[in-house]
Amino acid sequence: MKRVRLAVSLLVAFEGVSSAQSAQKIIESYLHAAGGAKALAQIQTATLAGSLTEESTGKTGSFSLVTKAPNRIYLEIIAGPEHSAEAYNGMSAWAQDGQQGTHTLTGTVADEVEGAALYWNSRLVDIKKAKLGVELAGNETLRGRDAYKLRLNLAHGVARTIFVDKETHLIAREVSPGESLTLDYDDYREVNGIQTPQRIEIRRGDHLYKVALTRAEFNAPVDNSVFDIPRPTSADLPDMKSLILQVAKNQKAIDAMAKEYTCHVVEEEQKIDSKGHLTSTKVSEYESFNVGGDEIRKLVVKDGKPLTDDQKKKEEDRFNKEYDKQLKKQAKIEADPQKQKKAEEKDQAEISDFLRAVRFSNVRREQFRGQEVIAVDFGPNPDYKPKKLVENVIQKLMGVVWIDEHALDVVRLEGHFSDSAKFGGGILGSIDKGSSFVFEQAKVNDEVWLPVYAEVHLGARLLLLKAHANEIDRYSDYKKFHADSKITSVNE
Prior knowledge:
alpha+beta
């Protein structure tokens, strides 16, 4: 029996290794058939364009797919009067359609577009460098031809499925996450040494579009403006640096209103191993209070279970000690004009560091949670050489910020590290490329924007210790609270 169990274990282990090797070999066969890994790696821009016909209605139009390394993409479909587009410009994802007009994408949809940009620009040449996980998911028959089914794991947990023809070794089908978009490729021909499909079928929702390619170009000049979100030239838009400074100056008033509220927070923390696999999940629930702009939490539920009486008492003692300490610290600052001035100068210096290190682009007006806001992309300022550690870290950040121009407050902020950020030349530690965060607020009582959602995906190293973790915080049930109220147990 022991030998039987050993044999079964070895077979299972071999099957896992074999699948991983098969997936890699399939990718290698595709690269060779498509024109060679070296030729594909040299592609910096690609433009595919063609005439389009919608199968059910007979409407005609056009199709365009433009990519630019390392991570820009623009996809456009025009059928009769209907026009839709989606793009990622390296900092933000956006879409354009007849229902919502032009708008910035957020959440999972934005992750999918960013993932598509990463996938199409990588061309599967170096999946490790592009951080694309790949696995063999089986075999299928497409239009009477046998194909391998591969699953690609992109950034932010987004998965994409591709089918590789077993005979030609070229990609026969691509399926986006959630099967929202399917592209079937046929009639491959060589264009500048690269095998390129001349016929494409696109399935999106209830629509089936047939595309006949009329233009395919590789490494032709493509301006970055192709990927930028369009906006009306007549729009009255503020100077972003001035607006950011106003928001910073208004933070003291925001903190004063925020300290009057308490809320419930559900915190989900996930630990990830070096291969991206989930190793543990911890869920905690808190009551949250704001003192001087700092959030102080009191634990009430741990992994779905209320605290025991002993745990509750220890937590209340800890919380009250921290809360009182913060209150006294804040009171000292408010009673000392000199300390207030130093705190304000420190805040001003941090804002100045940020404004020097970044460059704003694509300023536009949008609707967010029923309010008109200013949205703008930010990324590294290539004309500024960092002089401080914090500036060097900031220059690795790219993302989008949404601001309520009238309330002078940030309503949403999302960003990611476009490169690894090192401390002490990398000796002390670093933050991994691809680490990202989202912070979102909602207007409470029509008087102040308060947090409702925060998400962090972090890969970092401190000395010899490496960590990969995800954390999501959800805020709810805001209630008025006054600083002179007594902190008591849940029962009281």
